[in-house]
Structures are given as structure tokens and as C-alpha cells.
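Collaborator request, handled under Task 6.
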Amino acid sequence: MTDWSEQRRDDVLAKAELAARARADDVARARGLVAGFVTQARRRGLAVSPLLARGGDSRDTYRTGLVGWYLRRDGSLAVADDGEMYVLVVRRSLRSRLAGVQLTAEEPRLQAGIGARDGESIALASLLDLRLKAGDSWPVSR
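C-alpha cells returned to the collaborator:
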């Protein structure tokens, strides 16, 4: 390898390591916000509800076996009472309609909706605060 290619490889590796550390820090801080939300929601007596996933842009809903608090009015994002965050949009399927779906918790990020359409991204702290302020009057459209 030439000096140039070695330097280039080292630069790429250093940038990747820096990005990984930044993401880990972002996730750790976001997990702290979510844990604080769960504590506050319980302290305020916010009712948990069964969390239903929806099939893409359709009105079809699917049981998840989870209970918690919806964070978005469209029902696409929630925090379960176990303190994990879930995206509640799934691929449509007859089997899932009958049997429900198994969701995998998502790593929370300080900016909810990264990569979403314009206007759908919001600071996680603001989203959680809005949800706490709304209390049990948080409408979820399906």
C-alpha cells in the first residue's frame, strides 16, 4: 500500500469511529430522556393503553402485546411501559392481522423522525414534553 492509501484508510476508520461514538452518545442521552418520561408518566398517573401497530399507510391495525404511551398522534411511535421505544408501522400481512406482530425495540435518538419527510422530525425532548403536557387527552388517529 502506498502512503496515500494508508492515510486515506486511517482517515476513513477514524471518521467511522467518531461517528459510532457520536451515535452511542446520542442513544445514551435519548435513553435517559425516555426513562425520565416513563418515570414522569407513571408519577402523573398517565394511563397506558394497548399499543397497536398499523400496516403502512393503511387503516389496518395489528396487536403488539405491548402497552404504553403513543408519542405521535398518528400512532406511529410509542414508548412501552418497559421503557423501550417502538416504531408502530409494519408491513401489511393477513397472518399478522390474525396473530399480531412482534416488534423489536428501536434505539431512541435525540431527534425523533430522522430521515422522515419534511416536518416530521422533532426533538425527542420536545415530543416527550408535549406528550406529558397532553396527559390522557392525547388523541391518536387510526
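The cover message to the collaborator said: "Residues 3-137 form one domain. The chain is about 40% helix and 20% strand. Please let us know whether this matches your experimental observations."
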